Inverse folding.
């Protein structure tokens, strides 16, 4: 089940941030209504996101508009890079480790740090030691600065000299089996409609803009909202039956196939915003 806030993040991340970053409440209600969200649910969620600092509200007469805050834009751009620009460089055989000792009065920062490390692709070697085959020092520096935990964090680069294999380390630190099962389900769900839509377009048929928007929205929303974060491990460390590359290729091809029709629909909905005097 999708949450209204997650759906608004998807709408702004994939569309509205590319078209000025602001939208009229009525346009948001119309777009999200296609997925079963009521007008009241959309309005309540927008207000809540504004209070949290994700969106900025603007009143123009009796009309309300919501735009991205710098904080939200940064989050969406980071998510887009994670999805559309995954690293593919070969592994140099080294491991990068992060350890922390955050005092008990600041234990809430431990949870925040762990969430960010998971998002970056780190695996948990033990309770306070996290590991990655990628050199993510620049990303880690941004995280520790944002959380103000630099005095409590150390970062190391090392070679593994024993006593297990690299494959065993991967199995211990990341649940690739469940992630692979998620990718298998994603492929089974979206490969048939992708083939159908691709065949229709190659035959000279057109796709309805609303149909493109709904399917593309659900595709990216499900891909972005996966309960399992892909650690983007190097190919050398992945199992032989790994479906991540196939799922990523399907996602990118289907996402691109629907871009024109979906964009046309969103533009038409955003164009319905009332023209108000901002003076």
């Amino acid at each position: 089940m999708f949450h209204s806030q997650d759906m608004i993040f998807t709408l702004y991340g994939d569309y509205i941030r590319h078209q000025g970053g602001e939208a009229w409440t009525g346009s948001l209600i119309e777009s999200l209504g296609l997925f079963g969200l009521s007008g009241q649910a959309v309005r309540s969620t927008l207000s809540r996101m504004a209070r949290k600092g994700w969106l900025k509200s603007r009143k123009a007469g009796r009309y309300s508009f919501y735009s991205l805050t710098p904080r939200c834009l940064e989050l969406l751009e980071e998510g887009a890079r994670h999805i559309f620009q995954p690293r593919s460089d070969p592994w140099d055989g080294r491991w990068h480790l992060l350890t922390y000792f955050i005092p008990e009065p600041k234990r809430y920062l431990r949870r925040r740090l762990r969430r960010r490390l998971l998002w970056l692709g780190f695996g948990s070697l033990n309770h306070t030691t996290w590991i990655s085959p990628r050199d993510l020092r620049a990303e880690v520096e941004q995280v520790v600065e944002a959380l103000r935990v630099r005095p409590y964090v150390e970062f190391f680069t090392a070679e593994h000299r024993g006593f297990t294999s690299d494959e065993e380390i991967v199995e211990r630190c990341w649940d690739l089996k469940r992630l692979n099962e998620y990718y298998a389900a994603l492929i089974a769900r979206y490969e048939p409609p992708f083939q159908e839509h691709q065949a229709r377009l190659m035959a000279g048929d057109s796709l309805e803009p609303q149909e493109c928007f709904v399917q593309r929205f659900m595709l990216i929303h499900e891909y972005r909202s996966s309960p399992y974060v892909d650690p983007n491990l190097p190919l050398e460390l992945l199992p032989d039956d790994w479906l991540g590359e196939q799922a990523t290729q399907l996602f990118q091809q289907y996402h691109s196939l629907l871009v024109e029709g979906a964009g046309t629909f969103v533009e038409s909905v955003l164009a319905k915003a009332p023209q108000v005097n901002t003076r």
